[in-house]
Amino acid sequence: MFDINNILRENIKNLTPYSSARDEFQGEASVYLDANENAFGSPLDEAYNRYPDPLQYNVKKRLSEIKGLPIRNIFLGNGSDEAIDILFRSFCNPGVDNVIIVPPTYGMYQVSANINDIALKRVNLTAEYQLNLEGIAEAIDKNTKIIFICSPNNPTGNSINREDVETLLANFNGLVVVDEAYINFSRQKSFIQELTEYANLVVLQTLSKAWGLAGLRVGMAFASEEIIEVMNKVKPPYNINEASQQLALKALQNVDQVNEWIKETLAQRDKLVLALKNFDFVLDIYPSDANFILVKTTDPKAIYNFLVERGIIVRDRSKVELCEGSLRITIGTPEENNILIKSLQDYK
Ligand code: PMP
């Protein structure tokens, strides 16, 4: 049985979190002389002289409407990268604990583990880019705190079989983190619906992809109230700045616009795949559930360099295990995709 107290670090259990200026007095006052801010104003028009809401109530309220989830189940990070780091710092003891990743996958799980001095166990995906459940079961030991699953997976683009993730959730006594950065582009439904079923589930999403707000740095973690409480205790007090909170709230009114972009991205993805398949140097394109495709080529490095010379940057993943020979290409606007195809027509 999963029990958060079995995986929480002792120092975090006993932590007195930083109490921000506005935590202790929660009402409305007319004179704020509590936080050593500049009382005269800011060089900007808006009220940036004041610290932002540490728990980002307004943004969470809107997200709660969109996701159909109570505010107490939502954590906001400075990008979902911050949520990943906060999970390490909350649950993994440096030099003692380990986490499992399933390569090829998103690079930050490894980087964050390295920064936090947490050992990594790597259980490669199968040749079909699915979970090796037996391998994962063998890798789990008493110090394994988190298993990171990315679905749709970066860089392969495919979704991970739902039943396999559920098997892990049901049998593992640590956290299963399902990173859904690309879920808006996917045919699969989100794991958010499973939060009531599994106390050990953490779902990550972000405003950086479909929402078009990579520059704002706003990411989300959805989990049980207990897990969210811990993450809020560990995060820096003002991790989402005032400008990001205001702009995220404004952007979150634009669901229709985002859905339009998603539709257009998927249509462009189909077109791009068809066009790329005509080239002799394209060996395979893995079926994608995301806004990028993994394209296996005869000579990735040469193609990469050829495109760079024409001012087009794709991601060379050819040295990544199980992605040998592959370039990861983000779906662009129709114009950008045409430029890519036109340029590749001049290759060889
Ligand atoms: N997870 C995955 C799978 C990603 O690909 C990325 C961004 N490349 C992130 C998380 C981080 O996103 P954010 O901008 O929210 O930090």
The number of E-state strands comes to: 11
Q: Give the ordered list of helices and strands.
A: HHHHEHEHEHEHEEEHHHEEHEEH
CATH topology of the largest domain: Aspartate Aminotransferase, domain 2
Question: What is the CA–CA distance across the termini?
Answer: 59 Å
Which bin fits the share of residues in helices? Answer: 25-40%
Instruction: List low-confidence stretches.
Output: none
* Strand arrangement across the biggest beta sheet: 1-7-6-5-4-2-3
CATH architecture assignment name of the largest domain? 3-Layer(aba) Sandwich
Shape: globular
Q: Biggest β-sheet, characterized?
A: 7 strands, mixed
The CATH C-level name of the largest domain is Alpha Beta
CATH superfamily of the largest domain: Type I PLP-dependent aspartate aminotransferase-like (Major domain)
Secondary structure category: alpha/beta
* Strand percentage: 5-15%
- Rounded to the nearest angstrom, the radius of gyration is 22 Å
How many domains in all? 2
**Mean pLDDT across residues:** 96
Query: Which molecules are bound besides the chains?
Result: 4'-deoxy-4'-aminopyridoxal-5'-phosphate
* Discrete helix count: 13
